[in-house]
Specification:
There is one protein chain. This protein is an alpha/beta fold. The chain has one domain: Rhodanese-like domain (Oxidized Rhodanese, domain 1, 3-Layer(aba) Sandwich), CATH 3.40.250.10. About 35% of the residues lie in helices and about 15% in strands. It has five helices and five strands; from the N terminus they run βαβαβαβαβα. The chain has helices at about 10-15, 30-35, 45-50, 70-80, 90-100, and strands spanning about 5, 20-25, 40, 60-65, 85-90. The chain has a five-stranded parallel sheet with strand order 1-5-4-2-3. β2 (about 20-25), α2 (about 30-35) and β3 form a beta-alpha-beta unit. The longest helix is centred in the last third of the chain and has 12 residues, at about 70-80. The protein is globular, with a radius of gyration of 12 Å.
């Protein structure tokens, strides 16, 4: 499967439909502390390659950062390492918050 880019609203809808999706937040701890999707796993992009063994290559991920740039880079890294079911949040958390999309799964 290839990378899919989803809006925050589309991401939220998929998260509400599928409890097996994992939100992978690749921002820094201070960014994550300001706001994040409930249940998100924090793994800053700076640490991603060194900590890949903490992730399940067969799992399905929604990858998010602040504006969508780092998450797209993270998705490229993950794809190169055999991860195949990835969704990138277009516009990141800034867009998510700006569009008032809920941070909780319904």
């Amino acid at each position: 499967m290839q990378l899919r880019n989803l809006s925050p609203a589309e991401s939220h809808a998929e998260l509400c439909r599928d409890s097996d999706l994992i939100v992978l937040d690749v921002r820094t701890q201070p960014e994550f502390d300001r706001y994040h999707v409930d249940g998100a796993v924090l793994l800053p992009i700076q640490e991603l390659e060194d900590r890949l063994d903490e992730l399940d290559v067969t799992a399905r991920y929604v990858v998010v950062c602040e504006h969508g740039v780092r998450s797209a880079m993270a998705c490229d890294i993950l794809l190169s390492q055999g991860f195949s079911d990835l969704r990138n949040v277009d516009g990141g958390m800034a867009r998510w918050i700006g569009e008032a999309v809920p941070l909780l799964r319904d």
